[in-house]
Hints:
Elements: E1 10-11, H1 19-25, H2 27-36, E2 50-53, E3 63-74, H3 86-92, E4 100-108, E5 115-125, E6 138-148, H4 161-164, E7 168-173, E8 180-181, E9 192-196, E10 201-210, E11 216-228, E12 236-244, E13 261-265, E14 269-270, E15 275-284, E16 288-295, E17 298-308, H5 327-335, E18 351-355, E19 357-359, E20 363-364, E21 369-377, E22 396-404
Parallel strand pairs: 1-19, 9-12
Antiparallel strand pairs: 2-3, 3-11, 4-10, 5-8, 5-9, 5-11, 6-7, 6-10, 12-22, 13-21, 14-21, 15-19, 15-20, 15-22, 16-17, 16-21, 17-18
The protein binds 2-acetamido-2-deoxy-beta-D-glucopyranose (3 copies) and copper (II) ion (CU).
Signal peptide: 1-15
Keywords: Signal
Region (Disordered): 317-343
Amino acid sequence: MKVLLSTTFVLGASAAVLPDLLNALSGYGFLLGYLANGNVITPNGIAPPLQNLKVRTRLPESKRVKLRYGPYKMPSSNATSEAFDPFSASIAGMSGEKGMVSLTATNMSTPCEECGLTMLQAGLEYADGTQATTGTGAWLHHVLLLAQGPGRQDTVCANDANWTTFGQRIFSSGNERTAASFTDMTYKTPSSAFQINKGDSLAMQLELMNLNPQPQEVYFTLDFEFLPGPRRRDVETATALWLDVTGCGNSNVKLPKGQPASTFSSSGWTAPFSGRMLAAAGHLHDGGTEVKMFKNSQLVCDSKATYGMTNGGAAKPMEPGAAHGESTEAESAHRGHEKIRRDEMDPNMPHIATMSGCASFGIFKRGDTFHIEASYDVGKWMPMEAASGEASTVMGIAVMNVVED
Ligand SMILES: *[C@@H]1O[C@H](CO)[C@@H](O)[C@H](O)[C@H]1NC(C)=O
Ligand SMILES: *[C@@H]1O[C@H](CO)[C@@H](O)[C@H](O)[C@H]1NC(C)=O
Ligand SMILES: *[C@@H]1O[C@H](CO)[C@@H](O)[C@H](O)[C@H]1NC(C)=O
Ligand SMILES: [Cu+2]
């Protein structure tokens, strides 16, 4: 839960933060909140596919619903993954990483027929509803979420044939499980939302990786916080800018061989409208250190990775102290394993646990140009390796939620 909410939370100069809100949304608060939030655990059974949870944004009139999708079978960590479906393969760029399942799902349910999404967060859980994390050997490696429906098109790649047919990219997550906000979290009332309309559905490209030799079955979950009903006049329209080092490509880039540090830059995207920057965070793969976002070549947000033994949003149940990617612990764990290749799936290898984010960080005008720079340091953090022994392709993405003026 770290987009808005990490210890390295970055705020725009104009933001006045409600301390209790931040506390409620901070990593550890999230863990406690999650367990106390109305999540149903069904020992030895199957937890309900739809759960009404307590709202965490404390915005009046909001609802919070958790939907689960799946189940998905993860092969043994020493078994090469099953065949990929073609779309997934074109997006994933993965090549038989061990323990990996890579899939696409379409026609996924939304939490409402019509509503304004104010927040989204990805998760992974077992049949009974308990959380699945890298601490339990279940790695939420990557998810790319799209809204599909009449008239939907990607905001940044509106004119790109590769994306117009797929829909609108609205959210990305990985082990960091960053919560994405479509409203200004410094207000007590929801000022903006991403509208879900009748006929909309969701689609995703999902990658999960098993760190255990025993196959595991997990469910992917999405927590939606939303304002029920059709678009309201007092709530502005938010959208997601998917800024990607591959531009409108498939998000995968190759790390240069024999070079520890590398930076990938995106091409510029020129805003066709004016607006305000609500929230943003980066998505990287292991080896990544930060995603910098620029407006007219000026840094507006620096989303930094921290590494840890479990994901930021959910501590390993038995060892809450190990959560939150504290770098001292993570770095010492890392140093002890320098010679170990990621494809050996050492369960003690740290992964990206959190990505810091920015909130309420300023305005932009029509004609302003955005670009991002994603940095990797594989001398410091071990990247994942493909079955071939080469470093897997990696990603450099920032999803910036904005509201149009
Ligand atoms: C995976 O490891 C287990 C336990 O070490 C072993 O029994 C099994 O044969 C291995 N499977 C493969 C596909 O290597
Ligand atoms: C999508 O899912 C709904 C139920 O959620 C179902 O009624 C509909 O037939 C599905 N559409 C397609 C194209 O699979
Ligand atoms: C569309 O995707 C293909 C295949 O990934 C890629 O070669 C092409 O550059 C993409 N088009 C644009 C405009 O990015
Ligand atoms: Cu990814």
